[in-house]
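Q&A log
Question type: sequence-to-structure
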Amino acid sequence: MTSSSKSHSFFYRNGLGLVALTLFVVALVGQIFTGWHEHNAELQQNGAPAIGMLSYFSSGHFISATFENFESEFLQMALYVVLTVGLRQKGSAESKSLDEPEDVDREPVAGPDAPWPVRKGGLVLKLYENSLFIAFAILFLISWGLHLYGSWTDHNEQNLLEGKGKDTVANYLTQANFWFETFQNWQSEFLSIASIVLLTIFLRQKGSPESKPVDAPHSETGK
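Response status: OK
Response body:
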């Protein structure tokens, strides 16, 4: 730990991550509590008994609702990471410079303080060079699969309550419900990407690394 790090408290050094994770946990708890009550209300309306909270965690209702949202967030970040490699937006704080070289494009140097994959080189380095995108892509695929499983399970639970037969996963994929859930989340993430890219051309937030300096011209690209 550097002397600069030692002079700051643990929260000061990690406040952004801690606050973000705390907000996530609070929102997730709120989702679980309200989702459980909503699901039980739906069950009772269909003449089925209410379920306990532990049983709710394994229900299609909970799994679908949770991973439907995770999926869209990981898709957003995966696309944002990879699209900003090669695409530009004049004037945006979220874009690389139109002409000047960027530090993120330089070839890695295997110095003593460099991460282990950089010092190792070869395939390990190639994977590490793209590890952020790979991680988000894997998280997206896992979340998409769990969203599908949860949505299909919830669909079949509803079918049973209504006296209908179960659908296979293949048959469920041909129906509109899952894709409606999917696209209503995806479109909001694509809009949020476009919003942060375009709004940072003209708007500022003093002190934020996601904004250009307050006195920077609108035509200036990059932070």
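Response note: The chain has a mean pLDDT of 93.
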